[in-house]
Amino acid sequence: MYVVTGFPRSGTSMMMRCLQFAGITPVVNPEREAVMAKRNEGDYPANPYGFFEVKETDVLRVGFLEGIADGSAIKMLPTSLPFIPARSALVIWMRRDPNEIRRSYELTFPKESFDKKFPEWPRTHDVQLKVIPPLLNDRRSIHLVEMQYRDVIADPVRALSALPIDARKAAAAVDASLYRNRAA
Predict the structure, then answer these.
(1) 2 partner at 20 to 30 Å CA-CA among 19, 39, 63, 74?
(2) pLDDT at 27 > cutoff 90
(3) Residue 138: CB partners within 8 Å, gap ≥ 6?
(4) What is the pTM of this model?
(5) What are the strands of the beta sheet with 25-26, ordered from one edge?
(6) Is the pLDDT score of 8 beyond 80?
(7) Are 92 and 13 in contact (CB under 8 A)?
(8) What are phi and psi of 182, to 5 degrees?
(9) pLDDT tens-digit profile of 97-133?
(10) How far, in Å, are 3, 71, 83 from residue 87 at the CA level?
(11) In degrees to the nearest 10, what's the CA dihedral of 97, 102, 107, 113?
(12) Residue 4 host element (H or E)
């Protein structure tokens, strides 16, 4: 099982698309995808190729993760990672500059207050990066790979070669024109 994680707006949807191009089946909730697709309407299409999401309540439901077929990919919030069942899993943690995350989030969700959603930013981001990976590293069935969003954009084949997939096929999914919120 492939698990893609990271803070919202860190490149998780891009990574899910890369895995799909490499032949890995994404697990997606059509209802959630339809709701999120509305974020692509208007002047700022956030993820024009899709969000590749499931409902977080599904992820936390007993038996849901166990039912995901080997060779499939699912996108999960970092806080849900400890719920990965005892099975072989490759966790791809997308990393991105916190300032870029914030700017992208504000453009994607203009009616939501970033400061209310993440009152301790960027500490919220930093704490997750400090606390959750060691929990995963203690689980022998989980292999954690951290990937920088900017590296995947800059040289997709090279960056994606760190994964057990066809990096050339996966790299075809990367659309560098969507890197619109670069840190100074």
Answers:
(1) 39
(2) yes
(3) none
(4) 0.94
(5) 25-26, 72-76, 2-6, 89-95, 142-148
(6) yes
(7) no
(8) -90, 140
(9) 999 999 999 998 888 899 998 999 999 889 998 999 8
(10) 12, 12, 11
(11) 170
(12) strand 2-6
